[in-house]
Write a structure and sequence with these properties.
Length: 247
């Protein structure tokens, strides 16, 4: 599938002490590919995507992002993080900074971009997520959906080549899920490479090129959404789908 991979994960194994949390993970992500990762709670989804931007160390294997190799030796963390944007379940905005300051902090301090230029660029991204008029508010003055859209804009200001999302809508009130998913659909339509941990199966059907199903630290199944939903290949994927689609 991935003829021109931007992320390659080879034989990745990770332990927390004695607990084998990621087992023989192999995954290639093509440029512009959209992958949805799903699976039961505790199956290792967060740990896996956190390995892609070096938020977690691992003991065996390698992760290669745009040609930059991460291995157990923890070299190349900074260059990899520069390529990869991440959006968390809990937004992780700085509460004491305005929306605009949240979106200019890293460009100014990590990329050394002059403040005026960083602000101009940040405003463009805030327009893309449809909240430019909130630029001077603090995160606490905004709804969860708005905060998550700021978090997406903030990640985009670093011009990442890959965006990781870890359950970006699961902390939101139901009426705010759509505005965040719409923002993610726009991003997908612009060609961004995305790995999205989510149980929003509507999003998976609409946007994903592939659904990766994990259980107990392993990739059990990786398939186009149509096939995955219509004809899951493993007992564990069938059980999982029957549990989440029932609601
Ligand atoms: N820092 C940690 N130390 C020890 N165990 C952890 C740590 N983080 C996660 N785990 C365990 O690893 C497993 C996978 O966690 P996680 O990747 O968060 O799963 P998921 O995102 O699929 O719910 C879980 O059993 C969790 O309890
Ligand atoms: Mg998780």
């Amino acid at each position: 599938m991935a003829t021109d991979p931007i992320v390659r994960i080879n034989d990745l194994n990770k332990w927390y002490g004695d607990f084998h949390v990621l087992r023989d993970i192999n995954l290639e992500v093509g440029k512009g590919e959209r992958i949805v990762i799903c699976g039961p709670s505790g199956s290792g989804k967060s740990t896996l995507i956190r390995c892609i931007n070096a938020l977690e160390e691992f003991q065996e294997g390698e992760v290669v992002v745009d040609g930059i190799k991460l291995g157990p030796n923890l070299k190349h963390i900074d260059p990899v993080r520069r390529e990869v944007g991440m959006v968390f379940q809990s937004f992780n905005l700085f509460p004491h900074l305005t929306v605009l300051e949240n979106c200019t902090l890293a460009p100014i301090w990590v990329r050394n971009i002059p403040k005026k230029d960083a602000e101009g660029a940040a405003m463009k991204f805030l327009e893309r997520v449809k909240i430019p008029h909130q630029a001077n508010k603090f995160p606490g003055q905004m709804s969860g959906g708005q905060q998550q859209r700021v978090a997406i804009a903030r990640a985009l200001t670093m011009n990442p080549k890959v965006m990781l999302f870890d359950e970006p809508t699961s902390a939101l009130d139901p009426e705010m899920v759509k505005e965040v998913l719409d923002t993610m659909v726009d991003l997908a339509n612009e060609g961004m490479t995305m790995l999205v941990v989510t149980h929003e199966m509507g999003f998976a059907r609409e946007v994903a090129d592939r659904v990766v199903f994990m259980d107990a630290g392993q990739i059990i199944e990786s398939n186009a959404p149509r096939e995955f939903f219509a004809d899951p290949q493993h007992a564990r994927s069938k059980l999982f789908l029957s549990q989440i689609l029932r609601h």
